[in-house]
């Protein structure tokens, strides 16, 4: 059974209060937030990180993408895949990714926006809404077990 985290970056690993910047001068990534993600993944038993963020549109050789990869690597994390979708249809992109990766049986979505997730009941129940990973809450009133466990592992670290 394989587990995956569909990861947005902005609003999860950074917020408006983040002072660090990327090489291109955009909002950077907070080490403490990456550490929380790494800890939660470790407690869950490991899993893949699938980039669902706008950052996926960067060329892998782009300095900001290299920066993201290096921040994750610092805590033993790596990107194993990415979704392909437009910014407003992240749910559709995740649906297509899961159809192509039947080995993924459990997953959560970390994002600060709801996009089209509510159209997909299974996604809505696994969506953890953030304002920084430390400020995470369930999107659904009836969250899936994966979301409950993952949120608990985040809170244990705080």
TrEMBL record:
Lineage of the species this protein comes from: Bacteria, Bacillati, Bacillota, Clostridia, Lachnospirales
The protein's name: Hydrolase
């Amino acid at each position: 059974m394989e587990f995956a985290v569909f990861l947005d970056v902005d609003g999860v690993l950074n917020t408006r209060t983040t002072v660090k910047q990327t090489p291109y001068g955009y909002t950077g990534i907070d080490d403490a937030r990456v550490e929380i993600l790494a800890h939660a993944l470790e407690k869950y038993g490991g899993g893949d990180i699938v980039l669902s963020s706008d950052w996926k549109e960067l060329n892998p050789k782009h300095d900001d993408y290299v920066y993201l990869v290096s921040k994750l690597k610092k805590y033993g994390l790596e990107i194993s895949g990415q979704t392909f979708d437009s910014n407003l249809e992240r749910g559709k992109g995740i649906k297509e990714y899961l159809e192509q990766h039947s080995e993924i049986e459990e997953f959560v979505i970390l994002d600060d926006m709801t996009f089209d997730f509510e159209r997909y009941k299974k996604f809505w129940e696994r969506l953890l809404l953030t304002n920084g990973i430390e400020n995470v809450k369930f999107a659904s009133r009836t969250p899936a077990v994966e979301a409950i466990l993952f949120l608990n592992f985040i809170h244990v670290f705080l």
